[in-house]
Amino acid sequence: MIRDDWVTVITSEILDVRDGTHDSPKYISNSNHPLVTSKNLKGGDLDLSNVKYISKNDFNEINKRSKVDIGDVLFAMIGTIGNPVVIKKEPHYSIKNIGLFKNTFKVINSEFLKYFLDSYNLYNQLVKRELLKGTTQKFIPLGHLRKLEIPLPPIPEQQAIIAKIETLFSDLDKGIADLKTAQEQLKIYRQAVLKKAFEGELTKKWREKNIMTSSFEYLTQLSKKRFDNVSDKKSIYHKKISHNFKFKQDNNTPTWSSGTLDKLVYIAARIGWRGLKKSEYTEKGPLFLSVHSLNYGKYVDYSKAFHLSLERYNESPEIQLKEGDVLLCKDGAGIGKIGIIKNLPYKATVNSSLLIIRGMEVLGQEFLYYLFSGPDLQSIVFERITGSATPHLFQNDIRKFELSIPPIEEQHQIVREIETRLSVCDKLEQTITESLEKSNSLRQSILKKAFAGKLLNKAELEKCKQDKDYEPASELLKKIKAENTKQ
């Protein structure tokens, strides 16, 4: 129930609701006519850093029906629905897949409208009234944008509600900013821990108390053993692992070695799957892992895997997984993500976006996991992300990856030292995440009270009623209807 001086209105009754083009104009580089899409609406503002450009002719054609003006509100119609933005600066762009609310009758404040479009009140309406369409990608048709229900208070009350929301949000935003700063500082601390770990700093005192065979001596023996164990001495040079890996005594830590991963450990991937299609996926059978299984912490999540036939699985013995393998995503948006194969439930293989690293008798699986999570590899990943539209790690990047190699016993101790420190980070991270979720819930609670007419106290409401422009919202609607009748 809303108060007597409020009314529930349909968007088309008080606004001119349009949308931008849904076609795909030809993008051109030597143009100064931007095309803003739903992806450019972020955090209540326009992000034009990755905007594309179109011809003057396409620009003018789109703007014939959906020219954006100051005071208009933009609303993403596809993908991440919403992200409303109030236009405050003179715009010079066309729009695509964006709803356009033009405040023709001036009975609703644009900021008030934006806050409503950003609230759970709207989201619940979209769900309950089944206003969203699409399966793989949700969208809201223009016709449905025109029939949204909005609670409309008198204009002075709208202004007072906006002022109170902004005051409350200002305090909330400061707290959120502090939490996000803490999150970033934790990321920096994590990388600092990993950097020190692989430089030998975390186990310096441990080494003083523990005598062991140096990794240089161990690798020297391993190289000889691998050579001696192969009957065909010519073929060994073509194997994924062999005796002729590169290593030397580490300059900084005498019991360590330094070298590259090539020939030292097992590295494998498949470039393609001979036209494998989704229609070939099976209900049961060997697991077919992708980057989606690497989103859930240190260990691979098998529940996110597809299945394929045993015949397909047997095509590539070199990428059939074993317990303790480490998977690294080398392509696309998930590049750099890592996971360990633990408690492998069944036969399994990987798609072409994943690389397998098997530490053999040289590098422990958890040591490898943290090594690849550390700043040395992740800096390579960052270079690829920023330097290419389709980021990619090549097998050679991993084969030639330079690292320091501690003795196996010290690798285990390094992992313990890392996890002791990062477990504290994990707890802090969880606390921050929960606090951010509470902040978002509080933000929505404020908006819910605002659009139920319960945000302002009695004194604030009385002040609104004393305003010279105060009149019930029903009177505003009458004026709109009278104006429409004249036209």
Automatic annotation (TrEMBL):
One of its GO terms (biological process) is DNA restriction-modification system. Residues 4-176, 284-438 form the Type I restriction modification DNA specificity domain. It comes from the Bacteria. Transmembrane segments: none annotated. Keywords: DNA-binding, Restriction system. Gene3D superfamilies: DNA methylase specificity domains. Pfam families: Methylase_S. GO terms for molecular function: DNA binding. Belongs to the type-I restriction system S methylase family. This is Type-1 restriction enzyme EcoKI specificity protein.
